[in-house]
């Protein structure tokens, strides 16, 4: 029982490794399709996800309501909800950062040399080496900017992982076998992330935050939702108006499972011509 998160470089084989590990262990794979399916319950469809998924924020998004902030809260909720179910392989989305410190979570990163990644894309996608190089450079830039902007960490920072596998040295089958053996070891076979009170609190708070964020009547980008204990919710941060404050508090207090709500939301009307970045 456990969770495996996989961060991977484009062309390193990380997606294939994640899929094979999930199949061998009989775990559920949370990949692009899985996230798209789960996001539908929040009103997001695949076309919208593809525009913001693991991409750096665009200029317009910085000055108007940022769709990526809404997506980020949905993504966080999906990651936490999946981790609570145990036995998931989660690809990307900063899951290794979100689930840091949760017992039973093993965080892997799959990397490879530039030449290896280029050859992989040429062979798998039928593109030219120059096109492959452009794809790799663009993808790396997007993920570095995304991780820095939304998580305030450096993409690929070694200290954020329990293992880093270079598929130029350990091929896909060897990498799969190694990960399966680790996750099948005594340390992880008896681990149940779902029993973590920290994870339960994070998941509960994030579910409510995502619900508030997807309500078009509220600019919830400045709202912070915390679960201090079972059923104990704390709202703080800023909103634009008294109406938004009352609505956010109403949504939170009416959410199933909330037994106590405290709020320190501050009303700060936006200044004309200025937008928070």
Task: Give a quick set of tags describing it.
three-stranded mixed β-sheet, 12 helices, single chain, 277 residues, five-stranded parallel β-sheet, alpha/beta
Low-confidence stretches: 59-65
User: What is the average of the pLDDT values?
Assistant: 86
Portion of residues within helices: 40-55%
The largest β sheet comes out as: 5 strands, parallel
Characterise the protein shown here.
The protein has a five-stranded parallel sheet with strand order 2-3-1-4-5, sandwiched between helices. Strands 6-7-8 form a three-stranded mixed sheet. With 277 residues, it is α/β, with parallel strands linked by helices. The longest helix has 23 residues, at 129-151. Helix 12 links the parallel strand 7 and strand 8. Helix 1 (14-25) packs across helix 9, helix 5 (67-84) packs antiparallel against helix 11 and helix 7 (114-125) crosses helix 8. The protein has helices spanning 14-25, 32-39, 46-52, 59-63, 67-84, 95-98, 114-125, 129-151, 172-183, 186-189, 197-213, 242-253, and strands spanning 3-8, 28-30, 88-91, 105-111, 163-166, 223-229, 232-239, 260-267. It starts with a strand and ends in a 10-residue tail after the last strand. Residues 59-65 have low confidence and may be disordered. It contains twelve helices and eight strands.
